[in-house]
Amino acid sequence: MSTNKKSSNNALAMTLLKGRTFIVLIVLMVFFSIKAANFLSLNTAMLIAKHVALYGILGIGMTYVIITGGIDLSVGAIVGLAGMIAGGLLEKGLTLQMFGVTLYFNVPAVFIITMLLGVVIGTLNGLVITRFNVAPFIATLGMMYVARGFAMIRSGGATYSKITGNEALGNTGWEVFGRNIPGTVIPVGVVILAIIAVIAAVILRKTAFGWHVLSIGGNEKAARLSGVKVNKVKIMVYAFSGLCAAVVGIIASSQLVAAHPATGEGWEMNAIAAAVLGGTSMAGGVGTIGGTIVGAFVIGVINDGMVMCGVSEFWQMVIKGLVIVLAVIIDQFQRNMQAKMALQARNENK
């Protein structure tokens, strides 16, 4: 085989690898449209869109974390805790026993408090990782149990079953985050996803902070020698991941008009899968927000498609696990191919 033909084949293979997630998405949609009669209906599309919004927002935060070479296993638990804090404030208020009063907050205040909670937990993750040199896997695994435990403690394991608020207390309207845009079929969650995605993509690709995030994942020592404040950037990245998780907790509780401490269980795997399927390298230094959104669509289509086809929840877990492993293998294959192509190009230029 001639060198030119081999280079052409390598270029084609690389193009297919880079677009693999989109190709998989199309194949899945065709497959489930054949297997499930109502898969292409508007109702199904809106249901998938609502789920994609949740996975996508979580995946965006996870993308930043993975790019720096880390991992955040606490996001699912933060989703549950955020919903419980918001639900408790709306349904029970905040009782100050010392003063014998109960404070009730309006929806904007609850929204801000919940987001700040996510930022605080994420910041704690970052501090433990950077200040005490704890591996991200261990630090965030521990925080996952802490957050899930506090979610249970918040209500004694019970559900806040009606968090619509009370007009007399001025705290109604929480369900707006789970509804559609008035006069349309577009879920509010999808709009929130789009806003976060655009901001995150611009920051990652067009700002010094984004360059710092990418450089830390590419070569942390070189980034540090270049003047990048590595610890500060990592803390901010984990804080952002916590913020994304809190937003998802808000949307999820709003969609259900209820809060349960187990909400978000296992969603960290959906976030990781969305990021990895979208081309974010587990080795760090590589990732795009657009790719993660496509990855979130793949996860959403797989989840809802399997449900519509009657696949058991246990097999769904097996399939999602295999998807993550396969995505990592393909990513490694792509990295090896890119290295070989770069070496070949250098040899040809000599």
TrEMBL record:
InterPro entries in UniProt: ABC_transp_permease
Intracellular or extracellular location(s): Cell membrane
A matching Pfam family: BPD_transp_2
Keywords (A to Z) from UniProt: Cell inner membrane, Cell membrane, Membrane, Transmembrane, Transmembrane helix, Transport
Bilayer-spanning residue ranges: 20-40, 47-67, 103-128, 134-153, 185-204, 235-259, 271-302, 314-333
Membrane topology annotation: Multi-pass membrane protein
Principal subcellular localization: membrane
Classification via PANTHER family: ABC TRANSPORTER PERMEASE PROTEIN YPHD-RELATED, ABC TRANSPORTER PERMEASE PROTEIN YPHD-RELATED-RELATED
Name the record gives this protein: ABC transporter permease
